[in-house]
Amino acid sequence: MTAFETPAVPALVPDPRSPGAAPSPAAGRERPSGGTPLLSVRHLVKEFTLRSHAGELRKRVLRAVDDVSFDLGAGEVLGLVGESGCGKSTTGRCLLRLVEPTSGEVRYKGEDLLAKGRTEMRRLRRELQIVFQDPYSSLHPRRRIRDIIAEPMIVQGTEPRRALAAVPELMRTVQLDPRRAGAYPHEFSGGQRQRIGIARALSVRPEVIVLDEPLSALDVSVQADIINLLQRLQQEMGLAFLFISHNLSVVQYLADEVGVMYLGQIVEIGPAREVLAAPAHPYTQALMSAAPVPDPEAERRKERIVLRGEVPSALDPPSGCRFHPRCWMAQEICRTETPRLVERGNGHPVACHFAGGA
Amino acid sequence: MSAAGLLLPEEGLAAVRSRRARPGWLTTPVVLGLVVAVGWIVVALTIQWWAPYSPTAPSGSPLVGPSGAHLLGTDELGRDVLTRTLYGARESLPLAFAVVAGGVSIGTLAGGIAGFFGGWVDAIVMRIVDLTLAFPAILLAMVMTASLGPGLFHIGIALVIVWWPIYARLLRAQILSVKESPHVEAAVAAGASRWRLFRVHILPLAFTPLLINATIDLGQVVLLASGLSFIGLGAVPPTPEWGLMINDATGFFYQWWIALGPGLAILSIVLAFSFIGDGLRDLFDVRSSESSW
Amino acid sequence: MVSVAATAPAHGAPRAGEPLLEVRGLTVSIGRGPDALTAVRGIDLTLQRGESLGLVGESGAGKSLSMLSVTSLLPRGARVGGSVRLEGRELIGLRSRELRRVRGAEIGMVFQDPMTSLNPVFTIGRQVEEAIRIHQPGLSRSEVAKAAVALLAAVAIPAPRERLHSYPFELSGGMRQRVMIAIAIANNPKLLIADEPTTALDVTIQAQILDLLRRLAAEREMALVLITHDLGVIAGMVDRVAVMYAGRVVEERTTAELFASPRHPYTKALLSCIPRADRPDARVLGIPGSPATLRPPPPGCAFAPRCPDAVDACHEVDPALEGEPGARIACLVASGRVAATRPGEPGPR
Question: Which residues of A touch B185 (CB under 8 A)?
Answer without folding.
Answer: 93, 98, 130, 132, 138
